[in-house]
Structures are given as structure tokens and as C-alpha cells.
Amino acid sequence: MSDQEKIKQSKKIFFSFLFTIFIFRLPPIYIIPNSIFTSYAIGKLFLIVLFFITLNLTSTDIHKLIANKVLILVLMYFAATSISIIKTIDIFLFWQFFQNQIFAILIFTIAILLSSKAKLAYSKIINLISIFACIQITIESIYILLSQLISNYSFVTPIKDIVQKEALDAYLTNLDRSRLSLDSYYEILIPFIIYKLISNQQKWNTSKYTLLSLLALGMFLSVLSNFRTRIVLITYITSSFAYISWKYFKKNKLNTALIKKGFYVFLSILITAIYLSYQLFGFTIIDRLLLKESDSFGSIQYRIQSTKTALMAFTVSPIIGVGLGNYGLYNRYQKQSATITKNQYRSDYNNAMKYTTHNFITQSLAETGITGTILLIGFFLHSFKLDLDSIKRLSYSRNYNKVPFIISFWSIFIIMFLNPSHTINIIGWLLFTRALIDSNVKTNSRNHP
Question: Do residues 50 and 13 lie in contact, with contact meaning Cβ atoms separated by under 8 Å?
């Protein structure tokens, strides 16, 4: 196969790869009802096939992986998590968490090799991700609309054998707590919509107005969800774009106008969503932030207790940890609280949550010890240095296309710091964005804010 043919083939494979990653961004569904054969399982099977195809196409580019410092840090952390099996009590729990790390590394490897081989432009990747974001926002809005229009959760009946039980347990528990969410965190894709809107200086057309409408809808649903993490994400994303535009594109009048308009639009969305939340539930995201809502302090109390439990587990095996996924075996606090609920789905959800501290650092400290935690922190510190340098060089490098990937990457960091983060849809996207930030994808300096 000639080099030109390999490039064409790599492009096709890369778009298949993007589609596969998007499978993990959607709610997991059963291929065979109530079995292990889910859409996520199919996605992982696709990843394995794509990995070997990629290796065959890019065999001459393997040296790029060896020289990639981020991959070296990731593999060192992977080795640390592997060693923790020595102290593991429950091998099944270990494997549940471990296999997600394996597939996340496959995502990183495929992205690094294919993105450079296919000679793709960032703009095309951003376009596709923006479409994915719009699809996710649409799905979430339909779900929320059905959950509010149809009483007694009867809308669940036709989908209970379709949506994976663990995910459905989470959705119903959230509804019990007056929180509207599919736990998809589509917010991590919003940077790509915003960038697409401000980077293309062509006249506004139907496509751009559609994107703007879905962006406004996404922000509205984030506030309405009553999840504090999601309002933190929206605030971080919008303020990051506002700062970067002000700092590096001061002379661009278009962006100054967009920032002002964006601020007023965001303020209107915030007020409307807060008002509607109060009418529907009797409290708002503001009440949750101020700890006035009944369940708000309880979730913080759980995080504090989880940190204490993680530190206790850390003392059991401080060097290599108690084993990946095994933190929950030491979490008696959550076991007790899980028994006081009336609904089976809520009890099952609470039992599942006992295996996470809602913070990736304390989780790592308990399960991989000081060895894994130092490597994990090193990964983020190295990434922070690289990204800070990229932002500082924007004024003369004109490499604007990396901005949405950088903002998306650190959005995931916020999620991992405040919520469970061991699933493939979180760590997989984390390493995908990291790979695209570090890769040599072509940029288009004419399309910039």
C-alpha cells in the first residue's frame, strides 16, 4: 500500500474511531436485554479491532509513541494500578475498573497514531465533535421533557429493558432527588460549539443559529439540572473563552461584541432556569450552592466521610494501595446509608456509589497508594505546563484550534475532582483530548477567533 493510500485509509479509520468514542458519550443500552452485551461492550470491541488496524497502518510511526512523554506517564500509572492487584481482595471489582483504563489507553494510542498519519485538520474534527454535542444535548432535552410531562416514572416502562440497569438506577435516583440528568456531562463538548461559533467569521446562517440555539439549550439544561458540578463546568468554560478572547484577541471587534452578547444571553438563561427550577422543585441551584436545600449538605458530608475512609484504606497499604476498585470494601458508611431507602433502584445505586470517593486523588491514594497517586498528579502537572505554554504562545503561534481541546480536557479534570470518574466515557475522553492536544494535527490559521 502506497503512502497516499495509507493516508486515505487512515482518514476513514479515524472517522470510524470518532464514531466509536461517541458510543461512550451516549447512555449505555442493551444489545441483548439484561446481559453484559451492551453498546459500551460493542464500542470496546470496535476499539480492539481499530487498534490492530491502526498498528498495521502506522507501523512506521511507532517511534512517536515511544517519544511521547504523556503516554509514558500514563503507562507508568497503568503499571502502578496493575501492581495494586497484589493487595486486591475482590478481583472482579479490580477488573471492572482496570479494563476501563486499558481501553482509555487504546483510545490515546489510536488517536496519537491516526491523527498525524491521516493528516486531518483540527477544523474537521471540531465540526464532528460539535455535531456530537448537539446530539447529546437533544437527547438530554427529550429525556428531561418526558420525565416532567409523564408522571410516576411511567416513561421508564418501555425503556427498562433497553437502557442498562446501572444507568437507569442513576437516572431514577436523580429524579427522586429533583435532579435532571443523564450523567452524560455533555458540557465537556460545549467548548467545541463555542469555538465553532466564534472562530468562523463568515455571515451568520441557519447552521450557526442552530448551533447557538442548541448551545443556549445546553446551558439552560445544565442550570436546570440542579447539579453543582455542571454549573461549575459551564462557568469555567464560558469564563475561559471570555478570558482567552479578551487576552489574545483584543483587536477583534467581533469577539468583543460576542463576549458582551454571550454574557447577557448566559445571564438570561441563568435567571430563566433558576425560576423554572423553583417552580418545579421548590429550590434552585443557588440553594444547593448555599447548602439551603435538604440534600446539599448530605452529599458534602458523604465526600468528607469518603475522604476519611480513603485515608484509612491508604494506611492499610500506603505504597501500592488496596487494589483498583477495592476502596468500596472499606466504605462502611455508604453500606449503612444504602439500607435506609425504600426503592430498589435507589438502593442499588447507593451500593454502586460506595466504590467511589467522588474525588480521583483520594480514590487513587486508597487504591494505588502513594506510587500511583504521585504518577497521576505528575500527569496532570505535566499536562498543565504544556497547556499553559500553548495558551501563552497563542498570540504568535496562532494555533487556536487546540483551545477547545484544552478547555474540554480541564473540564474533565473538574468532573474527576468532584465526581466519580472511573468510567470509560470520562477517562476515555480525557485521554482522547490529551492525544489531540499533543498530536501534530494540521491547523488552519485563517479560521480563528
Answer: yes
